[in-house]
């Protein structure tokens, strides 16, 4: 009997371990219930404190209301964090978690992994994670009145958290030291990801609620963005989507994503678009990619550079003044002759971009050849046909570019 008992209850599954696991499974729902009541209470407190803080009644002490709101907010986050560790973590550990709970725990670990090396990002991301976790539950099973009240708090808090996250990225991008030079590409990716996340989750909610005075200004851009939320995107589509995100950011995040950082993001997209044009071998695809590059050049010059006040040198400022003067002159053609307007605008953009290609370390000789072919087709430059003999064949050249 003793030997049989030892064989049945081995090191991996003793009688006491089995009882402990069973009790844990029984107690977990109770803990969820207790945590749920606590969260509900703390949530109501923070909503009430937020509403009092936001009201415009001057009879109340604003500093006191802000302090009460901050205290209620901290208590609310603590309750949510306790729920994750007391309930979700134990359910995942004991193999009783749902897919939603498994994903929630995975995201929790992803956020906490930032704590050692990226504390500022961790601090903001964790708040966002905990609030989003509660918001998912509110959307599913709460009364409409609670949803409406919570949405006001949710939008306000998410606005401040996204701005803080983007501001942190902006500091790293604008840093002129070598501290982040090797990771700037990754920071650009994070910026675009954060902008997309905001527009999908927060801006869409604002539009649904008719929230904010400046929403009307970006509805058209938002509708363009929506077209890139369906199906699988290729490299060209991703560049176009990021171009729209940057355009929207110029209206929503002018302080947390300042012009100097937005300019570097545009330049990153321009580099990617130029590389894509010269690397695309199929003519039809290259034409579409080229059209995308022209649109990006226009966005960069009109939406960003036209608002730039401080330039790196007087020479750059004067060069852009000449460009802007020509652009305004060409714009007069829009009503009279739209086709001519498009043609002249394209010629202006090509010539301006050609001047910038030689200043970097990337070999854009293929793109230069493509640009010059376009200018010849438009009659903007004269085709000079020189010939030379190579291996018994005559080769024609255009301004030193082989045709």
List the topology elements:
Blueprint: H1 2-8, H2 15-54, H3 62-93, H4 99-112, H5 119-141, H6 144-174, H7 184-209, H8 215-226, H9 235-252, H10 259-279, H11 283-304, H12 314-331, H13 333-336, H14 338-357, H15 365-377, E1 385-390, E2 393-398, E3 401-402
Antiparallel strand pairs: 1-2, 2-3
Structure description:
This protein has 403 residues and is mainly α. Among the domains are: 14-142, no CATH class; 311-403, no CATH class. 75% of the residues lie in helices and 3% in strands. The protein has 15 helices and three strands. It has a three-stranded antiparallel β-sheet, with no helix packed on it. A hairpin with a 2-residue loop joins strand 2 and strand 3. Helix 6 runs antiparallel to helix 7 and helix 9 (235-252) runs parallel beside helix 11 (283-304). The chain is elongated and about 80 Å long.
| Total DSSP helices | 15
Q: What's the alpha carbon Rg, rounded to whole Å?
A: 29 Å
User: Helix amount, in percent?
Assistant: over 70%
- Could you give the count of β-strands? 3
Main beta-sheet annotation: 3 strands, antiparallel
Morphology call: elongated
Secondary-structure-derived class: mainly alpha
First CA to last CA: what distance? Answer: 93 Å
Strand order of the largest sheet: 1-2-3
DSSP strand content? under 5%
Mean pLDDT: 84
| Low-pLDDT stretches | 1-13, 18-32, 393-403
- One letter per element, helices H and strands E, the order comes to HHHHHHHHHHHHHHHEEE
Describe the structure concisely:
The chain is 75% helix and 3% strand. The chain is mainly alpha-helical and 403 residues long.
């Amino acid at each position: 009997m003793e030997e049989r008992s030892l064989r049945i209850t081995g090191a991996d599954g003793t009688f006491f371990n089995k009882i402990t696991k069973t009790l844990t499974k029984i107690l977990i729902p109770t803990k969820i219930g207790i945590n749920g009541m606590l969260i509900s209470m703390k949530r109501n407190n923070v909503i009430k404190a937020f509403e009092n803080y936001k009201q415009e009644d001057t009879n109340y002490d604003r500093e006191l209301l802000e302090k009460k709101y901050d205290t209620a907010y901290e208590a609310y986050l603590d309750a949510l964090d306790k729920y994750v560790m007391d309930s979700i973590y134990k359910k995942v550990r004991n193999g009783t978690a749902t897919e939603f709970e498994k994903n929630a725990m995975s995201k929790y670990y992803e956020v906490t992994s930032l704590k050692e090396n990226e504390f500022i990002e961790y601090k903001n991301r964790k708040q966002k994670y905990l609030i989003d976790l509660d918001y998912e539950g509110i959307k599913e099973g709460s009364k409409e009145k609670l949803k409406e009240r919570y949405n006001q708090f949710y939008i306000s808090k998410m606005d401040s958290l996204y701005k803080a996250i983007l501001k942190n990225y902006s500091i790293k991008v604008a840093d002129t030291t070598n501290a982040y030079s090797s990771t700037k590409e990754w920071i650009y990716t994070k910026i675009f990801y954060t902008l997309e996340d905001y527009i999908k989750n927060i801006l869409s909610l604002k539009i649904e609620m008719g929230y904010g005075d400046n929403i009307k200004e970006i509805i058209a851009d938002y509708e363009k963005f929506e077209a890139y939320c369906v199906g699988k995107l290729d490299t060209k589509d991703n560049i176009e989507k990021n171009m729209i995100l940057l355009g929207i950011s110029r209206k929503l995040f002018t302080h947390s994503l300042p012009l100097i950082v937005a300019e570097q993001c545009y330049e990153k997209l321009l580099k990617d678009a130029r590389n894509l044009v010269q690397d695309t071998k199929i003519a039809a695809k290259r034409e579409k990619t080229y059209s995308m590059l022209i649109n990006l050049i226009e966005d960069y010059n009109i939406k960003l550079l036209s608002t730039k006040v401080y330039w790196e040198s007087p020479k750059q400022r004067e060069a852009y003044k000449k460009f802007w003067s020509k652009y305004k002159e060409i714009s007069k053609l829009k009503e009279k002759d739209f086709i001519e307007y498009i043609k002249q605008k394209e010629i202006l953009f090509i010539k301006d971009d050609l001047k910038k290609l030689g200043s970097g370390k990337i070999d854009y000789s293929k793109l230069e050849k493509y640009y010059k072919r376009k200018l010849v087709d438009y009659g903007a430059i004269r085709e000079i046909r020189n010939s030379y003999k190579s291996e018994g064949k005559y080769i024609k050249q255009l301004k030193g570019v082989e045709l």
